[in-house]
Amino acid sequence: MVNLEVKLKDLVLKNPVMTASGTFGFGEEFADFIDLSQLGGILVKGTTRYHREGNPYPRMAETPSGMLNAVGLQNKGVENFCNDIYPRIKDYKTNVMVNVSGSLVEDCVETATMINELDHIPGIELNISCPNVKEGGMAFGTSCASAEEVVREVRKVYKKHLMVKLSPNVTDITSIAKAVEGQGADSVSLINTLLGMAIDAETRKPLLSTVTGGLSGPAVKPVALRMVWQVFNAVNIPIVGLGGIMNAKDAIEFILAGSSAIQIGTANFIDPCVTEKVVKGIEEYMIRHQVDNVTDLIGALNQQ
Amino acid sequence: MKKLVQDFEVLHKKELNKDNFVLEIKASEALPDIKPGQFVNVLVENATNTFLRRPLSIHFVDYDKNIIKLYIKRIGEGTNKLGELEIGDKLNLIYPLGNSYSIPKNSKAVLIGGGCGVAPLLYLAKHLKEAGNEVTTILGIRSAEDAIELDQYKEYGRVFITTEDGTMGEKGYPTQHSVLKEDFDYSFTCGPEPMMKAVAAYSDANDVTCEVSLENTMACGFGACLCCVTDTKEGNKCVCTEGPVFNVKDLKW
Asked: CB 3.0-4.6 Å disulfide test: which of A6, B210, B213, B237 passes with B190?
């Protein structure tokens, strides 16, 4: 019997497989397809201080081996989450974490403060990297000073696990990772989507209402793997890797590159059962390679 | 209603004309309850540039034979690949997805379809007839050669045709057909957006309850990604879960 348990500091995951925010709703959307209790954790939809309608449509464009989205953090705000959503999902037998976004530092602080009161939410993922909001969003995550400020202020009020989601749309992701580590982040998750665009040559129009959007799917996996490996060599806090993971083999690659856990995003749209399959696939890999503890694989990239 | 992920087997492929075909696919297990207007999200395999599933209207359901019919138009690599499927091939579906047309009782209903938007109307016509409604279908096509499956619609009520070139039925668009001078209680439409907007305008002017089936670019099809929203009087709503069928009074049209 192999041991799939991993720890993100004090947060215990029964296995390394989590879901990526914005691709898994509130988990309820997947309850017909999988047993949610089989997952290491669920990152629910991006939540902001106030209701957001998101961007106009079209919000999605398919690309080779991926997709662009410009959803723009559509959500009903943190009060709605606390009052309406939380009671429905609080008893899931897995770690339910909330992805927190905001255009202003104060908004992130207030949102984190309210979620801090929810007993069954063991952590938040502070999103300083969304490319689809006009103000704030990714801007927090593209300079060390602004990343430090928002993490420092949220850290003051948020007492449980603080994961910070990093943007790949930077020159040096390691400096941002070190900056948020220095302000008390418990872990970092990377990568968020890569800024991209798509054009309809026939109409000469952009395919997204916002012209640019976030690229996800297998197309971004090599970039994500590279960044996980770089950050693994730069920080001492756990890394949660994501970006184009479609199967257990991809997940293992991220763990070998330095991820303590992984998140599955876009793949959920194509196969809503993929997360359970990845858990099983990691287990099979470990049996095949005679690895007793999945933690032995973290950062075990053989560079000889 | 529980959503499923299941493999189906291609039983038959019927070419309707150069652009459109109907796939008959068979489930290995008993089909769940499927309502008219609902759709499936189909996995397209072995297509280089097709990454996401393709949402397709459910054209007809035969519970006795465990068969779903999908009416598909070749419009890009994904649907072209589906057109290359052969008898015995497997097709993976997420289904049944979305809401459905409402089924009134003992009313007069007119169904107005254009192009491949006729896809969900056949199964709707069956349900409407079974609920005691008087069903009138108007199909808008470009030319007589696009007149397909008319006999199937005739099983459930009157069928009228409009052609853009006047080669069959009345010349013009379906919203211009003379039968619309009669009184109807409900209009149900699917097709190009300009046509549906014309149906909505006709319905509004004649105090007819109108339901439309919208199309949108989708990633998941079951409410997780929030990509396929449409603007309604209550804000953005997902076409995949809160639609695809909307009462036009709820839309900002």
From this structure: B213
Same domain, B26 and B115: no
Query: Order of strands across the sheet with A66-69?
Result: A60-63, A66-69, A212-216, A194-197
Q: Are strands A41-47 and A95-100 parallel, antiparallel or unpaired?
A: parallel
All domains in chain A, ordered by first residue: 6-54+71-194+215-297 (3.20.20.70)
Number of separate domains in chain B: 2
**Hey, how many other C-beta atoms are within 10 angstroms of the C-beta on A76?**
18
Q: Is residue B241 part of a domain?
A: no
Give Cβ neighbours of residue B181 (< 8 Å, ≥ 6 apart): none
- Supply the range of the domain harboring residue B24: 4-97
CB-CB neighbours of A268 under 10 Å: 25
- Whether A273 is catalytic is no
pTM: 0.95
How many Cβ atoms from other residues are within 10 Å of residue B183's Cβ? 10
Annotation-wise, does B78 bind a ligand? yes
The partner residue sitting opposite A57, judged by closest CB among B3, B51, B216, is: B216
Please write the tens of the pLDDT for every residue from A202-242: 999 999 999 999 999 999 999 999 999 999 999 999 999 99
Helix axes A221-232, A248-257, angle to 10 degrees: 30
Q: In whole angstroms, what is the distance from residue A276 CA to residue A34 CA? A: 7
Q: How far is B185 from chain A (nearest CA, A)?
A: 32
B13, B65 in Cβ contact below 8 A? no
Q: Which of A82, A130, A144, A273 is catalytic?
A: A130
Q: How far is CA A19 from CA B72, B81, B236, B252, in A?
A: 33, 30, 24, 34
Residue B173: inside a domain: yes
Question: Is B201 contained in some domain?
Answer: yes
What ipTM was assigned to the predicted interfaces of this complex?
Answer: 0.93
